Amino acid sequence: MKKFTLCLKISLISALSLFLFSFSDPESIEQYVGFLQKSFTEHYDFSQESNQIKRYELNVTNNGFCRYKRYFTNGKTEYFAFKLSKFKDMDYYGDTSSGKLYLRTKGDDVIVQTYKDRGGDVDSMATQVIIPLKNMEAEDLNLIRENFNKINPQTP
Known about the structure:
Elements: H1 2-22, H2 29-43, E1 53-60, E2 65-72, E3 77-83, E4 87-94, E5 98-105, E6 110-115, E7 122-126, E8 128-134, H3 138-151
Antiparallel strand pairs: 1-2, 2-3, 3-6, 4-5, 5-8, 6-7
Helix pairs in contact: 2-3
C-alpha cells in the first residue's frame, strides 16, 4: 500500500507540474533576436553616414550572430560580425534624436574584414561594433540591453 501511495503522489506531482508548465510562456532566443533585429532596423540612422555609405546590411541572426556590413561609395566594403554569446556591454553616445551605439564584446571577438580598400583587403579582430542610431529613448536602450543579456546571461 505504501508503494501505491508513493507512486500516486509522484504521479500527481508530475501531472500538476506538467499542467502548470503548459500555461507558462517561456520566451525563446528567436524572440530576443527578432526584437533586436526590429530595433536596429527601425532606429538605424543612415543620415549619419549617407555621404560615405552607399548601402548597409545589419542582421541579428537566429544562429547567434550580429552582422553589420557597410558598402562605401568608393567601392570599399567593411564587414563586422560577432557571436551574441560574446556580448559584454553596450554604451550609447548621443541624445534621443541621434547617436552611436557601441556594442562591446568580452575580448577581441568582433571579426572585422575590409575589401577593396587602398591598403588592400584586411582581416582583423576588434572589441566593439559601432552602429549609428536615431530616435532612441532610454527605454529602447534598456530593452536592447535586456534582450542581449537574455540571450547571453552574464556570469558573476
